[in-house]
Amino acid sequence: MAVSEELTASDFPVSAGRVYLNPLSPFYRAQLNFILVGWLSWFVFWRGEASDQLGNGRFCALIAAKNLAIGWAWIGGWHWFLYVQRAVPLEKKFNVAWPSEWQHRRDALFSTLGILQASVLELGVMALYARGAIPQLAVTLAQPASLAAAVAWVGILGIYADVHFYFAVRMLMLVLLLVLLLVLLLLVLLLLVLTLPPPPFQHRILHPWSGKQPLRAPAWDLGALLYKHCHSLHHKSSNPGPWSGLSMHPVEHAFYFSRCLVVLSPLVAVHPVHFLYVLTRLQLGPAKGHHGFDHEGGSSYSHYLHHAKLESNYGTNDLIPFDLWFNTRAF
User: Fold this and answer.
1) pLDDT of 23-76, one tens digit each?
2) What percent of the chain stands above pLDDT 90?
């Protein structure tokens, strides 16, 4: 399906909400891949005395090399298949124009920086687990309840991913601004504010809150400011490819990977594999969502339109149709 200005709802690919109801869909196959990669990372690098190596520079470099190898193999594989070999017919491409080589190189550079940033996060969480600072879910075959809890957490994290990507961040940003105003008015609360855990920011907050194009947004629009200085880098790829998904400003990478920080809650216990599953999904998932083809691999036409039209389709439109609910969906 090539891009057109005459698109209607009938042109929109089957909603991913239906895909969630199909256990044989490419979505679930991808999740199994991410879980497997997360489990292998835990099995090889996290178990036993691995945590004793956290102060070893070679071990830290090994974690970074592991993530770079996985990321470059997955994202680079999609790029090679679709944009070097051009193995999928052009009529399946959402935009029939091919991105420039400069765009691919820029996106690959910032994706690589993002993977390195994720590696630092992985080492930090590994250290917290090693020190017992994070409660850990014990999963054993002898305890079916623990296995059920582990499976349930995968589903919960999937729902949380949609909420984090679209909605929760906007409300939390408003809360943050309210707290900031209180700090300015009541300096005695400064210490309290500084001890609060940072909220998870994500996609919607990085666009103008007024819903207008960035250049037309009012002066008070903090979202327009965040877009101008951070998120606009991601949107340089208006005709995205596999490398575009993780191509972000370092500040946006921090917002993006904050989804993993749900494991830091002292109120719930999850297994390190859950953290690694979310981190792996964040690193590898965007390649499929941005590769730009109506292909079984699962590219998102909805999100392609977000890159093409900018101020629409902020959410994943997967499990929870936030764009439909908040009238930000475009066809």
Assistant:
1) 666 677 788 889 999 999 999 998 866 666 777 888 999 999 999 999 999 999
2) 26
pTM score, whole prediction: 0.77
Predicted pLDDT of residue 107:
95
Q: Which residues pair with 136 in a beta bridge?
A: 270
Backbone φ/ψ region at 263: left (φ over 0), alpha (ψ -120 to 50), beta: alpha
User: Please, which residues have CB within 8 angstroms of residue 208's CB and are 6 or more apart in sequence?
Assistant: 214, 217, 221, 223, 224, 227, 311
Question: 278: buried, middle or exposed (CB in 10 Å: 19+, 13-18, 0-12)?
Answer: buried
Computed over every residue of the chain, the mean pLDDT equals 76
For 161-219, the DSSP string reads: HHHHHHTHHHHHHHHHHHHHHHHHH-GGGHHHHHTSPPP---TGGGS-TTSS-GGGS-T
| Helix count and strand count (H, E) for the chain | 12, 0
Local structure of residue 90 (DSSP, 8 states): G
Sign of CA dihedral 316, 38, 262, 123: negative
More confident call, 97 vs 146:
97
Q: Write down the domain spans for the chain.
A: 14-325
Q: Which residue has the tokens 């080589």?
A: 101
**DSSP labels for 37-52?**
HHHHHIIIIISTTGGG
